[in-house]
Amino acid sequence: MFIGRSDELIYLNNSYRSKNSEMIVMYGRRRIGKTELLRKFAVDKKHLFFSCDLSTEKEQLRQISTAIYDLTKEPFLKDSIFTSWESVFEHLFTKFSESIDLIIFDEFPYLCNSNHALPSILQKLWDKYHKSKTINLILCGSYISFMEKEVLGAKSPLFGRRTGQIFLQPFTFEEAREMLPKYDKREMVYTYSILGGIPAYLEKFDDNISIEANVKEKILDKNSYLFSEPRFLLIEELREPSTYFDIIRSLAFGNTRLNDISQDTQIHDRAKVNKYLSVLKKLHIIDRQVPVTEDKPEKSRKGIYRLEDQLFRFWFRFIFPNISYLQEREVDYVWETKIESLLDDFTGASFEKICIERVKSLNKYNYLPFKFMKIGRWWDKSEEIDIVCVDEVGNYLFGECKWRNRKLGKKEYFQLEEKSKQFSVKGEKYFCFLSRSGFSPTLWNLAAKDKNILLFDYCEE
User: Fold this and answer.
1) Cα–Cα distance measured from residue 369 to residue 119, given in angstroms and rounded to the nearest whole number
2) Which residues make Cβ contacts (< 8 Å) with residue 258, sequence separation at least 6?
3) What angle do CA 219, 33, 30 make, to 5 degrees?
4) Cβ atoms of residues 102 and 12 within 8 Å
5) Which of 203, 259, 262, 397 has the fewest CB atoms inside 10 Å of its own CB, making it the most exposed?
């Protein structure tokens, strides 16, 4: 069953129905669902879907020749193949496009790997034919840095040719819930904190069994798909995986500042550490965050780094340090002594991300007291606030997210109100609380009397 991606499908179909030639670039990290989305989009259209691979140029020319013949039965391809990519695109953009509506190249970087001149060849023929013909071309790839530099970048031969682009993101929490509908909201928060919004990971879990059973069977078992997934991805994407392992491990155990990471990994050249962090950021494995109040976030010295990929965060926190036990199939021992008692604390950081998604959704549909223009976390040397929202006239919303087994009370409200005094607020102040376990009667009574206090019992269905 295909889930989500409605906005992307609408965009692709609108582009397809235009009377102009379209070159759409789609990219995003592996396992994000790009191929499934493109297959869903193409299912009712006459199309060529060519999955590029790492084989030689000659072999890929043979494969695409066969694919074109299977669609068109053109006699000249029955016993022969195209001898160059120039001849392939010449044919695709002329006679072929008159009968086949859509051309998709999946994992386009693999094709370029077999012939580095391919972007230039494609650019030349696109410029020659896109105005006189109606061509619907989609170039898709998982190597984010390649797609951004060699396809979308200013120095790429294809720069300026694309008519649109889709950078495919992981599912939001609410979208991920659709993949495991039998789980209640609390179970789904645990699942999302472990797997994030990557469709290929979510489909591995079975919502007929418990979170514990899923983790043991689908992640801790040394033969399972997810057991080695982060390690395989790093080895595939990076030249020095061992160094990146150290940096990600350091992040997983709470080191978020450049200096702390440098000391923990004993990579004393901070410029070198910064370079590694930049690579991980481009891969969307980590994210750099600054307080929401910073005017120039890219230059801020208050920046911290956090693991953005939830499976990486779980894997480096619980799998990597216990790999020896798991190789010996000590699955129950690792769950009971290394994971179970720490899972709620681990989930707390992910719950903040889920709550920010929720507040953004409330803002989108005008369910908040004002329409904010900025949202993010805030911190200084001694205090932090999980959510701060502000609009252009100076209204503020301050939010706290609590993933714990007791109800929030007036104490948490007064603490948040005290923290908010550090802000120069020109408009109204609002206080928002999102709780796993609900709220005390006294806080409910206070909120009933004060329209500036918003309460969300998050795990109530």
Assistant:
1) 50
2) 270, 273, 274, 277, 303, 305
3) 65
4) no
5) 259
Structure confidence by residue, pLDDT tens digits, 229-267: 999 998 888 878 889 999 999 999 999 999 999 999 999
Tell me, rounded to whole angstroms, the distance of Cα 152 from its chain centroid: 19
What mean pLDDT value characterizes the chain?
94
Residue with tokens 């150290």: 246
Q: Which of 75, 74, 63 is nearest to 105 (CA)?
A: 63
* Sign of the dihedral through C-alpha 123, 127, 129, 134: positive
Q: Model's pTM, two decimal places?
A: 0.92
Tell me the residue type at 322. Answer: N
As beta bridge partners, residue 48 has 103
Phi–psi pair at 3, nearest 5 degrees? -125, 140
389 within 8 A of 372, measured Cβ to Cβ: yes
β-sheet bridge partners, residue 289 = 304
Check whether 1 has a pLDDT greater than 80: no
Domains located in the chain, CATH noted? 6-167 (3.40.50.300), 174-346 (1.10.10), 368-457 (3.40.1350.10)
Q: How many CB atoms lie within 10 A of CB 459?
A: 18
Sign of CA dihedral 44, 167, 170, 29: positive
Non-local CB neighbours of 5 within 8 Å, separated by 6+ positions:
33, 37, 40
> Both tokens of residue 426?
């020109």
